[in-house]
Amino acid sequence: MIDPALSTVLSSASDPREVFDRIAVVSLPMVTRFRGITVREAMLLRGPAGWAEFSPFLEYVPAEASRWLLAALEYATNEVPTPLHDTVPVNGTVPACTPAEVPAVVARYDGVSTFKIKVAEHGLDSLPEDLARISAVRDAAPEALLRLDANGKYADLGQGQQALRAFAEFDLQYIEQPVMPVEGLAEIRAWIADEGLPLRIAADESIRKAEDPYRVAALGAADVVIVKVQPLGGVQAALRVVEGTGLPAVVSSALDTSVGLSAGTALAAALPGERLACGLGTSSLFESDVVTSPLRAHGGVLPVGRVAPEDALLTRFRAEPAREEHWRRRLGECWDVLRAEAGC
Ligand SMILES: [Mg+2]
């Protein structure tokens, strides 16, 4: 459902250029391959309230990508909800590295008090290395809260249970997505309760669309939900789904530039209830960004506020004409999807 204010904007403009006075497409080099890509393409749009990002992944069809445009439309035309905080804590990320590499990874995150540790890279086969890595993080950051992310890599319930039983020895904040199907998460969570294990489950991959969090909550599949502004259709839409589930939420990025990350901070700063460190410290994955000072954590926190890209960087990282054309076409298609949804 589209907000009445945004419906009004959509019905008044058959062409997105009537709403956005500047539109830029950038192609930003990444530090390492991530999600199979080494450059991240993003469209940046300026509206009356400021700059917003529209960067659905390339394989997304207009129906799905239109949620991302709805988020950009909202952020570029509306004021954000009143922030309850002026900074948001972020987590550090420990990749599937060796225990010997852990101290250097942890040391990169000044002031960070929550670490997310990647596990299950090769499913259950990774368990011995995973346990050694968790121990190494615990040694390197004895006071920190630790959470795990399995990215749904345990092949079945039995594998997940075997791993979780081993993980239960550590004092963990939660484990993200041990198995992929949401029904599987629900079964694992019921098993955790039966066994009386001190573990909480977070749903990440299970939440891609606005209706997903309700399904996660209805099935009792998670204790925590991971939410992202763009896929859920904007800051207000994300706030509504979080409220609807009644679960604590962690705001995460969709590999956004600093412009998209700033919308993430707006959501994180407006969330009521339990404050969990966000997964918004992802600008370090970019070799370059659209601002000279990318939205990076200092002292473990990100500032809350809008970000405007710099002209020189928009020029320097401007996408090739054919790619720019592709994104303009995509913008038009998604705009039409939103207008149809708004009844235009
Ligand atoms: Mg995850």
From TrEMBL:
<dbReference type="InterPro" id="IPR010196">
    <property type="entry name" value="OSB_synthase_MenC1"/>
</dbReference>
<feature type="binding site">
    <location>
        <position position="176"/>
    </location>
    <ligand>
        <name>Mg(2+)</name>
    </ligand>
</feature>
<keyword id="KW-0474">Menaquinone biosynthesis</keyword>
<dbReference type="InterPro" id="IPR013342">
    <property type="entry name" value="Mandelate_racemase_C"/>
</dbReference>
<dbReference type="Pfam" id="PF18374">
    <property type="entry name" value="Enolase_like_N"/>
</dbReference>
<comment type="pathway">
    <text>Quinol/quinone metabolism; 1,4-dihydroxy-2-naphthoate biosynthesis; 1,4-dihydroxy-2-naphthoate from chorismate: step 4/7.</text>
</comment>
<feature type="binding site">
    <location>
        <position position="149"/>
    </location>
    <ligand>
        <name>Mg(2+)</name>
    </ligand>
</feature>
<feature type="active site" description="Proton donor">
    <location>
        <position position="118"/>
    </location>
</feature>
<keyword id="KW-0460">Magnesium</keyword>
<protein>
    <recommendedName>
        <fullName>o-succinylbenzoate synthase</fullName>
        <ecNumber>4.2.1.113</ecNumber>
    </recommendedName>
</protein>
<keyword id="KW-0456">Lyase</keyword>
<dbReference type="InterPro" id="IPR036849">
    <property type="entry name" value="Enolase-like_C_sf"/>
</dbReference>
<feature type="domain" description="Mandelate racemase/muconate lactonizing enzyme C-terminal">
    <location>
        <begin position="99"/>
        <end position="192"/>
    </location>
</feature>
<comment type="pathway">
    <text>Quinol/quinone metabolism; menaquinone biosynthesis.</text>
</comment>
<comment type="similarity">
    <text>Belongs to the mandelate racemase/muconate lactonizing enzyme family. MenC type 1 subfamily.</text>
</comment>
<comment type="function">
    <text>Converts 2-succinyl-6-hydroxy-2,4-cyclohexadiene-1-carboxylate (SHCHC) to 2-succinylbenzoate (OSB).</text>
</comment>
<feature type="active site" description="Proton acceptor">
    <location>
        <position position="228"/>
    </location>
</feature>
<dbReference type="Pfam" id="PF13378">
    <property type="entry name" value="MR_MLE_C"/>
</dbReference>
<keyword id="KW-0479">Metal-binding</keyword>
<feature type="binding site">
    <location>
        <position position="204"/>
    </location>
    <ligand>
        <name>Mg(2+)</name>
    </ligand>
</feature>
<dbReference type="InterPro" id="IPR029065">
    <property type="entry name" value="Enolase_C-like"/>
</dbReference>
